[in-house]
Every structure is written in structure tokens, then in C-alpha cells.
Fold this sequence. Notes:
Belongs to the iron/ascorbate-dependent oxidoreductase family. Keywords: Iron, Metal-binding, Oxidoreductase. GO terms for molecular function: metal ion binding; oxidoreductase activity. Residues 188-299 form the Fe2OG dioxygenase domain. It is a single chain. The protein is of the alpha+beta class. The protein has a single domain (4-366), classed as Jelly Rolls (Sandwich), CATH 2.60.120. Helices cover 30% and strands 16% of the residues. It has an eight-stranded mixed beta sheet. Helix 3 (36-48) crosses helix 8 and helix 4 packs across helix 8 (147-171). The longest helix has 25 residues, at 147-171. It binds 2-oxoglutaric acid and fe (ii) ion (FE2). 2-oxoglutaric acid (AKG) is lined by residues 194, 196, 211, 216, 223, 225, 230, 276, 278, 292, 294.
Amino acid sequence: xxxxxxxxxxxxxxxxxxxxxxxxxxxxxxxxxxxxxxxxxxxxxxxxxxxxxxxxxxxxxxxxxxxxxxxxxxxxxxxxxxxxxxxxxxxxxxxxxxxxxxxxxxxxxxxxxxxxxxxxxxxxxxxxxxxxxxxxxxxxxxxxxxxxxxxxxxxxxxxxxxxxxxxxxxxxxxxxxxxxxxxxxxxxxxxxxxxxxxxxxxxxxxxxxxxxxxxxxxxxxxxxxxxxxxxxxxxxxxxxxxxxxxxxxxxxxxxxxxxxxxxxxxxxxxxxxxxxxxxxxxxxxxxxxxxxxxxxxxxxxxxxxxxxxxxxxxxxxxxxxxxxxxxxxxxxxxxxxxxxxxxxxxxxxxxxxxxxxxxxxxxxxxxx
Length: 368
Ligand SMILES: O=C(O)CCC(=O)C(=O)O
Ligand SMILES: [Fe+2]
């Protein structure tokens, strides 16, 4: 998340807004120091809500990342301030190619109304020079002139991600590099940086959803934003029930981290990929454009989507004992890339009936 300075330059998140989600704040510095109690708190957050705030302060790399978020936001603003004519030259072509610009109103929200955000997607492989399939695409000047910032932002994101992955693996009694190896940036993947601008909500007719309710496809998302508007679904509610949508309060120096569908799949339902959406920005914030930058981490392309074995990961016998029927729909036999394409197609055709997944009880361990 951005620095305090950027927060101070933005209208405040209202203090009296209700309901606001209770989200755990996890210290990156403590994860780096291998603090077991912090890792346990993070695992609980990943199981119950699927979201937590990652406090980047008091860690050298984290502090660097805080400064870079401000620069990334500057890049998003400059990119989105380009003329429509210029931006559409870089239009994406999903599901053939997810890279590039998506104009406002192209996607639908849950009511069928057009969305209220425009975004630009950059592929990690292009930024790091990993691309095995196709050459990097041209990008507009505000992005093109910041290749160093982008590389560094990804690298610092990897640092944070590695410690999150290690702590989760260790808490689940898996070899420490288990989750990291499945998404290591040295291998080609669909990992993206999505730069988003939401239009201000100037009139009551603009107060509808900006980005449809969804779960994230991939493994782990690192989201930076300053302005409110993000809502998470209270796990006790169904998405159709408006009362279940809780506002997320962004905090200076913190990233918002959430688990994606792949983490649920690998853990047999232990970790939770929770529904979220972006509504209008609350209070005075609705009068200004809302920016966000999301590193949407995906598994490496050939990664197997089958459930992991070992540690505290439940087995098929556990499923039976608990009377759980896990709808696999053939996912286990797919690679990560095949699975992502399948999901993207379903989304495009409006067949993706997104719902929160995971949050299963952890069984007691026989051995400590
Ligand atoms: O803009 C936000 O706050 C959330 C974006 C998001 O959920 C996504 O890009 O998947
Ligand atoms: Fe998301």
C-alpha cells in the first residue's frame, strides 16, 4: 500500500462507515523473522476470511515497496489520462491474450450493468524477460519509460510473497518451499500486474458496482490501494444478500493480500478464496478517481492443479469421514495454464458462477 503522504493527499475513508470488515494485520518483518505466532495468525486469516493486511513497514524491502507503490500509482494515473484513442491501440484480446488495455464498460457486473473500471494488464514474463511464447507487446509511454520500476516492484512483491508462502507451508506442515515453488517467478506463468482506474461516482446513478464480485483465479494477490470501495463478502452470507458485503479500509504502508482459487485447490479446501467486488468509493472519496494496482500471482504454467499430499492437507479419506463432497470438475488433471484458460472462457461466456471456496476446518494433528 501506498505511503502516508499519498493517503493524506486523498479524501479520507469515512470513520462511521458500516459494516467494515475485521481484517488481521500481519507484519512482514515478523514473517521474515520466522515468528510462529504471526504465521499462525496469518493462517487463521487465510482460512476464515481469505484476506489480510500485510504491513510492509520495519522491513527494508517492504519500506522500498511502500515508496514504489506511490510511483506505480503515478504511472496508472498517467496511463489512464491518455486519450481513449491512444489507449485502445493497446487493447487486450482475451482469452487469446490478456495483456493490454480494457476500456470501461466492457465487462458486466452481477446485475448485467456495464462495469465502471478501466484497466491495463502487464504480464510478469514480459517485465522479467521470461516470455517463452510471444514477444513483449509495445506499451504506452508512461509504462514504457518505467521498466526499472516495474521490475523492481515485481521483485519486491516476490520477496513478500516468498515469506507468505513459507509461513503458510510451514504452518500446514509441508516442506517450506512448497507453495513458493508452485509460483516461482523464474518459470513462465500468467502472473500479471493489473493497473486499474475506477471512474468517480458523481451522481446517485454512478453508485453501482465498479468491478463485479469474483474470486481471484490464481494463487495469491497483492493489492495496493488508497481509496476505499473494495468489499469482501462476510463468510456467513451469500453474495445475493447485500447485508453480507463489508467495506475494506485501506491502511498506509499495508498491502491487501488475498488467497486465490489455486490455494484452495492445492489445500483440499483449507485456505479460503473469498468473494470480493469493488463498489463506489465511500464518503468524499467517491468524488475522485480510484486507483489500484494488483499483482495477481498465478502458478507456473505446467503446475499440477491436484491437491497436495502430506502435512495437514486432508486426504480423500478425510473428505469421506467429514462427509464432504469436493466438486473437482476434472480440475485435478489439468495444468495451471489449462485451468486458467478454462476459467477465462467461462467468465467471458458468463458461465462462471463465482462463489467463495475453502475455509475448511483443520483437523487436529496426531503429532505436534
Ligand atoms: O481494485 C481493487 O481494489 C480490487 C481489484 C481486484 O479485485 C482484482 O483486480 O482482482
Ligand atoms: Fe480480485
